[in-house]
Amino acid sequence: GFNVLEAESSDNLTLGAVWTPEFADLKVAFDYFRIEVNGQVAQLGSANILDGCYNSEDFANESLCQLITRNPATGPDPFRIATLEDSFININQQFNEGLDLSVRYIHDTPVGRLIVDADATYQLEDFTLLLASGGLIDTNGESGNPKLVAGLTFTLEAKKDWTFVWDMNYIGNTSNVDRFTRLGGNQTLFGVPVQFKLNTEAVTYHTFSATKDITDKLRVTAGIRNAFGEEPPRISTGGQSNGQGNRVGSTDFSSNFDTIGRRFFFNVSKTF
Fold this sequence. Notes:
two-stranded antiparallel ribbon, single chain, elongated, 18 strands, 2 helices, mainly beta
């Protein structure tokens, strides 16, 4: 029954409020969002099928295991995987729920116009249920999927066609401790008690730049990204199937962390 495809559907709900007081050039927007996609047509991928089957808390009844066939106990390569079916199927459900906050404040100062932009997103829920009978992928708050991310930018439109920017990007802390414990992980290595580090600390990246409009059509920008040289948090492998797959050396290699480090940039743009 995995090959019969149906049309996917979604239910979205967004509630928002905007506050613009008269005493300041200020705009505050607050939103609640709830997105549910049912029956999305996709391929699960061999890694998700294998992980979902063998790491299932209900391994004996896990539906994903139906997509895997193994060699018989007798004969060549006993018990090895013979085939794995990864055709297009209807993923049962994807669900995302959270809160958005955005703020903009503008103020004229003696040295120029100051613009402050702030935004933050907090995920209440974020999971995928691959099949109606199992295959739950819930990584909300785990490595690579922090619950809280935020940004803050100060822009000064100064005199003599100068613009200065200070941008901050905040990535909240994460923890894979619950997943490691749930999957039966233990704090030993070759029989010796050890302590695994399965969490990442919050990180804030800073970018500074200055822009000069030479003419109406020529602009020059110079700056520095990751000005304070923040490195990705360090984590342990923690044992098999703990969800900490994206690791290079001893650091978390999740896509939201900067793995390059401090760097300078210089741009010249001209319109014709």
